[in-house]
Amino acid sequence: MNVPAASVSARRAPGPPGRWGLRNLAGFARDQLGLLRGIADEYGDVARVELLGTSYYLVSHPDDVEAVLVKHARIMLRDSHSVILERALGKGLLTSDGELWKRQRKLMAQAFVPRRIQSYGAAMARVTAAGLAPWRDRAVINLHQEMSRLTMEVVADVLFGSGLAPADVEQVRESMETVNEFFANSPEAITMLPAWVPTPRNRRVTAAVGRLDELIYRIIARRRAGEAREDLLGTLLAARDDDGARMGDRQLRDEAMTLFLAGHETTALTLAHTLYLLSTHPEVERRLHAELAAVVGDRLPTSDDVRALPYAERVIKESMRLYPPAWTTGREAAEDVDVGGYRIPKGAQILTSQWVVHHDPRWFPNPEGFDPDRWAGERAKEIPRYAYFPFGGGPRVCIGNHFATLEATLMLATIVGRWRLDLLPGQRLTFKPSVTLRQAGDGLRVQLSARRAG
After folding, report:
1. Of the candidates 217, 233, 165, 145, which has an alpha carbon nearest to the alpha carbon of residue 444?
2. CA nearest 434: which of 77, 255, 179, 53?
3. CATH architecture of 1-90+330-359
4. How far apart are CA 276 and CA 392, in angstroms?
């Protein structure tokens, strides 16, 4: 029987001691991923964590994750820390709530219907192949930097078509890197320091957002004055709400910025993590290449090929289980609510962590192992719903989840069909999580081996 959100039990969730959570804050600053997994292991599927006097509830059972994201979605607001994202994203889908979010969700959905998503596939493969042109046999590249470059070029082309010059793409990439570094647990981001406080990092991110604004508003103005195009921006420009109204320039800017940040960063990380795993699991890499050779051969992959690439799908899915680009999803309870038999009070922050749930041995035997076949046949049917939720869930599930999956699959197929990437000795993947699961350091080095010309 469904229990109304207001009918809550009196049980208080367990958690680490300490009213102000200073010890938790120190642990979070030192190792966010380890802290969350340790709390879940020690205190159970619903655990209360104090950080600087704010109560956070870590929810780690698939049924309870579903309750937060789906069953109680009506009373779940964006989490309080989303405010800091407005420095770059404004009031886009990721940072808005209420009626504004509902309106924008409907408008944005017009750009992500299946027919539209499929039509982007040719550009995804074409731009990726062109981006691989500078690669040379036996050369060493920075894996993370190259995936960031390639995905930025793909997202820029799909979003703006041919309206973005190479210099503009590089400017966007550099500015987005500044923004991402700001969000990567900088003191300004953690404390939500106002933008007017003139710290060097605040000044850098303000300047970077200013450069992005100038570029995006220039493109919007040019497109409004010109002919319609079939790219993603063209779809958003033409989209109308229930009253026939279209997005204004500010809302278009906010949604374009959100697509740049979310669509570029998450796919770049997915590809980098996947290629790292393939380089350390040669048997999986050989099997994937054999599937690509049989289905795609020497041509570019297409949207229609994706259904015939089940192993590629499983490889990406397993990579996103091990290393979810969105490693935690936050909500704020607008009312008292019962989750997992525990009372979560109004105003509390709720964390559902993909990192924690995706590594739980109850749902994934040998959770640290890279095993794409756990997603095949009967094994896949044994995995509970919401034990795997890389794109979130419920009404606020990532609107671009199918777009991102198609993009990652076609880009991976294009890369692996032409190149083998071998990790240089003495390196391992470590993380410095921010909004996304970013790697620590400046990226891994891999050596390229050409499979064929082109």
Report:
1. 145
2. 179
3. 2-Layer Sandwich (3.30)
4. 24
Judge contact between 454 and 418, C-beta under 8 A: yes
Q: Which two tokens stand for residue 145?
A: 């930097």
Paired tokens of 408 = 């990652």
Task: Tell me the C-alpha distance between 295 and 300, whole Å.
Answer: 11
Q: Where are the beta strands (DSSP E) in 358-428?
A: 419-423
For the chain, domain boundaries = 1-90+330-359
Chain mean position to CA 67? 21
Q: Concatenate the DSSP letters of all residues of 401-413 into one string.
A: HHHHHHHHHHHHH
Give the Cα separation of 349 and 53 in Å (integer).
12
Q: Identity (one letter) of the amino acid at 444?
A: L
Question: Cα 392–396–397 angle (5° rounding)?
Answer: 40
Query: Sorting pLDDT into bands at 50, 70 and 90, what band is 199?
Result: very high
Q: Do residues 209 and 179 touch, judged by C-beta distance below 8 A?
A: yes
Map residue 247 onto helix, strand or coil: coil
Question: For the chain, what's the residue count?
Answer: 454
Contact by Cβ (8 Å): 364, 358? yes
Give the sheet arrangement for strand 140-142, strand by strand.
140-142, 445-450, 419-423
pLDDT tier at 263, thresholds 50, 70, 90: confident
For 104-159, the pLDDT digits (tens) are: 999 999 889 999 899 999 999 999 999 999 999 999 999 999 999 999 899 888 88
Strand ranges for 234-318 from DSSP E = none
Cβ–Cβ under 8 Å, residues 86 and 79: no
* Rounded CA separation 151/263 (Å): 8
123 burial type by CB count under 10 A (0-12 exposed, 13-18 middle, 19+ buried): middle
Residue type, 397: V
Between vectors from CA 338 to CA 334 and to CA 344, what angle results, nearest 5°? 55
**216: its two tokens:** 């995006």
